[in-house]
Amino acid sequence: MTTIPSEHIADAHLLQADGEVYLYELSPSEGVGTIRIKADNSVTYRGNLYEGLPLKFEGESYSSDGTVSQPTLTIGDENISLIAIKPLLFDGSMDGGVVIRHRILLDDLLNNRLILETQEYRIKRIPGYSRSQIGFVLARQADGLNFSLPFKQYYSPDFPSVFVQ
């Protein structure tokens, strides 16, 4: 029976899964200001405070058959009050606004490193809100406008490296 070298065991202990953290930025279509939120606790990242609020992001999917997913973002629960966000809903500033979702590793967040993945969504509609909860139906910026790339085909002799069989 062979034994595992001690340096391999030490390297294996250094490998650990790092948690992913999602940071959200809500920007109204009209007016100024950005609402920065994060699930659970508040955190400061690169000089910006992301307020800890209960939230749920669901329904995001990618498909090869052309179907467009409509993810939803729900902010709040029955124990908090979202009165501060309500004026943006009443004057229509959030209609067509932008939601930016940053995915960052916990270690990069704690060490304030600018290593993250960003996804941008458009607020398609607001299905409902109450004193303690607000829901947004989102669309990707390109998919929300039924955007598609035009088809282009390349043939010889303009492209001699392309052979048609």
Describe this structure in words.
It comes from Sphingopyxis flava. This protein has 165 residues and is mostly beta strands. The chain has one domain: Beta Barrel (Thrombin, subunit H), CATH 2.40.10. It is built from three helices and nine strands, in the order H-E-E-E-E-E-E-H-E-H-E-E. It has a nine-stranded mixed beta sheet with strand order 3-4-2-1-7-8-9-6-5. The protein is extended and about 70 Å long. The termini are far apart.
Q: Please list the strands of the largest sheet in the order they lie side by side.
A: 3-4-2-1-7-8-9-6-5
Secondary-structure content class: mainly beta
Secondary-structure element series: HEEEEEEHEHEE
Question: Percent range for helical residues?
Answer: 10-25%
User: Unreliable stretches, pLDDT < 50, 5 or more residues?
Assistant: none
- The CATH topology corresponds to Thrombin, subunit H
User: What is the alpha-carbon Rg in Å?
Assistant: 22 Å
Major sheet attributes: 9 strands, mixed
Put simply, the count of helices is: 3
